[in-house]
Structures are given as C-alpha cells and as structure tokens.
Write a structure and sequence with these properties.
This protein is mainly β. The chain has one helix at 3-10, and strands spanning 23-32, 38-48, 57-66, 71-80, 84-86, 92-95, 98-101, 104-111, 114-121.
C-alpha cells in the first residue's frame, strides 16, 4: 500500500457536523532539525463540546523551539466551525485560511505579541 493510499484511507476526519456526543480530533506535524536544537510542532484541531455541537471550533496551534536561543514560542488561533473544513472522505483540513493536505500545510497563529506563519511541503514515506 502506498503512502498516499494510507493517507487517503486513514487521515480523514471522523467528525460529522451536528453530533451531540462531543468530539475532539487533531492532525499534526512535528519536525526536528537533524543537527541543531531547533524544532516545531503544528496542530490542526477540531473541538466540539458535548451537547453543544453549535459551539464547535477549529484550532491552530504552533510551537517553535529554539534551543540555541533557549526560547520556546507557543501560539494558538481559534476559528468558528463554519470557517473550517474537515473532510470525511480524504485528507483535507482547513481551519479558516490554514490548510493541511497530503504533502503540504500552510497557515498562521498568534498570541501574546508572537506570530508564527508556515508554508511547508514534504514528501517521503
């Protein structure tokens, strides 16, 4: 089975609009520099509170770790579910203008005077 087939079959969202039972689902990418103490973690999340599906939101989280500067920056962005897309039949996520698909992700989040933006493409198995 190819990596694309696995992603198409396994990485789609399980959430369905209007479900009252509550739901939490996240999709993320993490990378570490191979020789330096640098890393990032980006997460696209769907949160639907139990009994309140109308209050569901999409979230973007990003953490940048710079071990050389001994700094850690964390940002978060919340978006109403009406501005999100979590495909149930393929790997296709959008939280407002931020997207995550097989091989690519782009977006931004900010907090406490910090803003992190990303536009990444990746490949491999």
């Amino acid at each position: 089975m190819s990596a694309a087939t696995t992603a198409d079959n396994c990485n789609h969202a399980r959430w369905r609009p209007g479900l009252a039972g509550g739901h939490y689902e996240s999709f993320w990418l993490r990378a570490n520099h191979p020789t330096r103490p640098l890393a990032f973690w980006i997460r696209y999340t769907l949160f639907s509170p139990r009994g309140r599906p109308q209050d569901a939101i999409g979230e973007l989280w990003c953490i940048w770790s710079d071990g050389e500067a001994r700094s850690l920056t964390a940002v978060k962005r919340e978006v109403p579910i009406a501005e999100c897309h979590f495909a149930g039949d393929r790997f296709d996520i959008a939280v407002a203008d931020a997207c995550l698909q097989q091989g690519a992700l782009a977006g931004w989040a900010q907090a406490a005077g910090h803003r992190i933006e990303w536009d990444l493409h990746y490949g491999g198995g």
